[in-house]
Design a protein that fits this description.
mainly alpha; binds zinc ion
Length: 308
């Protein structure tokens, strides 16, 4: 029951501490970790916990994985579960199945949508196949355009007019920004939280995740580009590319939050140091994973009891 309460609290209010930390300008990589682990963790713990209703957990004081609690298997096989437990068990199964079916539906809908642009993306991948990995595919276009398309292999597309619009330093920063998106698998992260939000829009945490993640990946890519090319180069690239039309697929350089990003770069910020990022990610990870860990511990206890 305490676990269910924890799930409800995280599902309803889990976005608040993350948004509060974002207001305090915590390193974007740490926040990305927090959002991803808390959204995926919420789903995993919810499904695990309510599935456990189907097992006769209350029959025993299950206090350890290896504790051989007698009688529960007998209770299960002889069908001597009390009536209310049977009701709870079927509710648990229905709840878990509904969540999994909704996620399945959201994945299918997403696939169907991406099939429309698939031929174009495939063409770009083929064209980029000859270039060394990490190099952009240069296309002829008068509009300055820089974007990355996720997947295997990822593709960076840049228009040749960028060379006229940007200094070599800013051009290198733009390329580093797009490379950071591919290295960080940012397209995949956004796809995961968008799918979960579409599947289970009732949870404010899941609903808030896509917009927060889309902003954070831009900040994280800026920080990585700033570490390699200097904040001034990224700032120049961003201010020159602002206002360009955003493509239908992939992540464009100056699509979101440009004013806030420019402000952050103007302070010379390149994000936290590597050690600070690792420490921060670990701290956020421990906090975000405490709920799934508790659900996993309970699951091991219950399953251990049933098979014992
Ligand atoms: Zn970007």
């Amino acid at each position: 029951m305490a676990l269910l309460l924890g799930i409800a609290v995280v599902g309803l209010f889990g976005h608040r501490p993350l948004l509060w930390l974002a207001d305090r300008r915590l390193d974007p990589t740490i926040l990305l970790t927090g959002w991803l682990l808390s959204t995926v963790g919420l789903i995993v713990s919810t499904v695990a916990t309510i599935s456990l209703f189907a097992l006769p957990a209350d029959e025993h004081p299950a206090s350890g994985i290896f504790r051989l609690a007698g009688g529960c298997w007998t209770a299960l096989s002889s069908g001597s579960l009390p009536g209310w437990r049977e009701g709870l068990a079927s509710l648990g199964v229905i709840g878990a199945a509904t969540i999994l079916l909704r996620i399945g539906w959201a994945v299918t809908a997403r696939r169907r949508r991406s099939r429309k642009t698939a031929p174009h993306v495939e063409q770009l991948r083929l064209l980029a196949a000859g270039a060394p990995s990490g190099d952009p595919l240069w296309v002829r276009d008068d509009r300055p355009l820089a974007m990355s398309i996720g997947g295997r292999p990822g593709v960076i597309v840049m228009s040749d007019s960028l060379r006229h619009h940007l200094t070599p330093g800013a051009l290198a920063a733009t390329l580093e920004h797009e490379r950071a998106h591919l290295r960080g698998r940012h397209h995949l992260l956004v796809a995961i939280v968008e799918t979960l939000a579409a599947a289970l829009p009732l949870s404010p945490l899941l609903r808030a995740a896509p917009a927060a993640l889309e902003d954070l990946i831009e900040l994280a890519a800026d920080a990585q580009a700033a570490r390699r090319c200097g904040p001034a180069a990224v700032q120049e690239a961003l201010s020159r590319l602002t206002g360009q039309p955003t493509p239908a697929v992939g992540l464009a350089m100056a699509s979101r939050l440009t004013q806030a990003r420019l402000r952050r770069l103007s302070t010379g910020s390149v994000g936290a140091t590597r050690a600070m990022r690792v420490a921060g990610c670990t701290a956020v990870g421990v906090a975000a994973l405490s709920l799934p860990a508790a659900a996993g511990w309970l699951a091991l206890n219950v399953v251990g009891c049933v098979v014992a």
